[in-house]
Each structure stands twice: as C-alpha cells, then as structure tokens.
C-alpha cells in the first residue's frame, strides 16, 4: 500500500525540494538529490539510495507507480514502504520550473557518503582494471552521457573532480538513464587532484592516459595501451581540455584519429570511443 498525499497547493515545507530549492541548495543544505523518471528512481533504489519522498502527476500516477512496482519486483528491490508520495494535478505542476521537460515521477533521495580517492582505488578490481577520470567536465548532460558509456563499455569506476558537474544532478542522472547508480564513482577535490592525483594513481599501479593532442600522442588503438595492466583514462573540460600538469604527468597522451580539418570531438562522444577501445572489451 502506497502512502499517497493528494495536494491542493505547493506551499508546504516538505515540497521545498521540488518547488523552491535549486540542486546546489539540495546538495549542500539538505544532502539530497532529485531522481527523475521511474527508471532512474528504480535504479537508485536498487543501488541502496533511500527516498525521502516522491512527487507524481495525478494523471500518470497509476502508470508511474506500476512501472516502479514492476521494476522493483523484477530486481527484488525493497519497495517504497511508507515513503510520502505527493500527488498533484497538471495545473499545480505547471508552476514548477521545467514542468514541460519532466519525464515522469520525481523523487528526493538521500545522498550516500563517497569514499576518498585512496579507498576508492583500493576497491577497484584486481584484474585489468579500467577507470575514467573526469577533470573539470562542467556540463551535466556530458557527465550523464559519459557515465552511460562507462556502464556499457566496461569501465570499472569513475573519478570526478569537484569542479565538474554533479553526477547526481537531475539532468546528469536522467541522461545517464540511472547508470550513475550502477558504476562505482567518487569525487576528488580539484586542488588535491592537481597536487597529487596522478602520483596516487601511480602508487596504486595505474598508468594514466590523458586524452590530449601533443607531439607524442598515440592513437587509442595503439597496441601498447592494451598491454597496460591498470589504466586510468583522463578526460578534460569541454573547452580548454585537460590542465597542462595533468598531461605532462601522465604516462600517455592519447587521441582519436580524425579526418582532416577536425581536431576533436565532444567529450561525451570521445569518451564512448575511448571506452569502447580501451575498456574491458579489450581484456585478453
């Protein structure tokens, strides 16, 4: 039995996460994030995230709850229990920013504590691990697309610098189709990463492959990369790319061969090609 609460207005304090707080405020003041759509919510639940509440449009209530119940039954995921499920009609929901972009039910969920970089690296698989590092990737859609590719193409974990977009922002997790709850990942302070990130990768036996153009850049299909036991693929900001220090301290600089006149791809597209070539698919 679901705990349904039918709304006549959006003024209650319990509705602040949906109505009056932006995602940064949710993160820093409430330690919450919003998951959007039954598929994303179900994957978060399956990964162990606890819901604070749901908000569902009345005309889609039966559909969204049926989708959630069906997915949770298939995956033997704990149900919603007595989690408050706020139900609002279309007229009320039009007051929400971005109403026309919604993809079904919304849920506020509690964040989980992320491991520090040392603990994260220590828990990576021992057999031919492949991880990705996202340095200053600020577009949530790109973050989401990278996570979706990482999940699909054999990347064991993702490290996100603190000056990147938050993988749990609604747009990121929606574009990722919930795979941000599937791939192990953690944050690293941007300054700490610059100071000692590459050296810590080296301490744990990883060789770093920075995606950048230099005189010594090798193609992503270079056979020497496949022979590396532990590989960290480092992707940079959509505009300026990786910091110079990251590139110079890396063991390889790698590139995707391009047609004449084109020197780069969007970071999300580049990640998919790099993960396809260098991910677990390539394990011998």
UniProtKB/TrEMBL annotation:
CDD domains: SpoU-like_rRNA-MTase. Residues 131-275 form the tRNA/rRNA methyltransferase SpoU type domain. Keywords: Methyltransferase, Transferase. InterPro entries: Alpha/beta_knot_MTases (IPR029028), Ribosomal_eL30-like_sf (IPR029064), rRNA_Methyltransferase (IPR051259), SpoU_MeTrfase (IPR001537), tRNA_m1G_MTases_N (IPR029026). Transmembrane segments: none annotated. SUPFAM superfamilies: alpha/beta knot, L30e-like. One of its GO terms (molecular function) is RNA methyltransferase activity. One of its GO terms (biological process) is methylation. It comes from the Bacteria. PANTHER family: RRNA METHYLASE (PTHR43191:SF12), RRNA METHYLTRANSFERASE 3 (PTHR43191). This is RNA methyltransferase.
